Amino acid sequence: MKTIEMLVAGRAKRDGVRGDEGFTLIELLIVMSVMLILMTLGIPQLLKLRKTANETSAMQSVRTIGQAELSYSSTYPSNGFACSLAALGGAQGSGAPTPQSAQILPSDLAAGQKAGYTYAITNCTKVTVNNQDMFTSFQVTAVPNSVGRTGDRGFCSDENNVIKFDPQGGTNCTQTLQ
C-alpha cells in the first residue's frame, strides 16, 4: 500500500500537480490587492465618522458649559457668570467649591480640550455693582483643533444657551442648529 502512495506522490510532483505546499505569489498578491481596495474604501468613512463624533461631542460640551454657567450664576449671584473655564472647574474633593473653583465642570472641559476641539469662554461683559465685579454675559466657543481633520464646524453659545455654528470652523457663529 505504501508503494502506491509513493508512486502517486512522485507522479504528482513530476506532473506539476501541487500538494499542500502553501500559497503562490500570485495568490498572495491578489489577496493583498483586495485588502488594499477595501481599506481605501473604508478609511475615509472612518475619518468622516470620527469628525461627526467630534462635532457631536463639541455640541454637547458647549451645552454642558452653558448649563454650568447658569448653575454658577445661581450659586454665586454676586459674581454673575464665570469668565473662565477654570472658574467652573476644579477637582472634586479638593475642598469646598469657591467662585474661583466651582467644581461644576469635568476636568477635561475645564482644561479647554476635548475630542479634537478647543473650548473657551470669551466676550464677557463686566459691570461693577457695590464695588463688586459681576459678569452679565459671556460666549462659549468650541473650535476644531484642525479644521477638516478633527471637525468642520465651530460652535458658540451665550447666556441664552442657544447653540449656533460657524461652517468655516471659527467663532463667527451665525447659523442656528436645528
Automatic annotation (TrEMBL):
<feature type="transmembrane region" description="Helical">
    <location>
        <begin position="23"/>
        <end position="43"/>
    </location>
</feature>
<protein>
    <submittedName>
        <fullName>Type IV pilin PilA</fullName>
    </submittedName>
</protein>
<dbReference type="Pfam" id="PF07963">
    <property type="entry name" value="N_methyl"/>
</dbReference>
<dbReference type="InterPro" id="IPR012902">
    <property type="entry name" value="N_methyl_site"/>
</dbReference>
<dbReference type="InterPro" id="IPR045584">
    <property type="entry name" value="Pilin-like"/>
</dbReference>
<keyword id="KW-1133">Transmembrane helix</keyword>
<keyword id="KW-0812">Transmembrane</keyword>
<keyword id="KW-0472">Membrane</keyword>
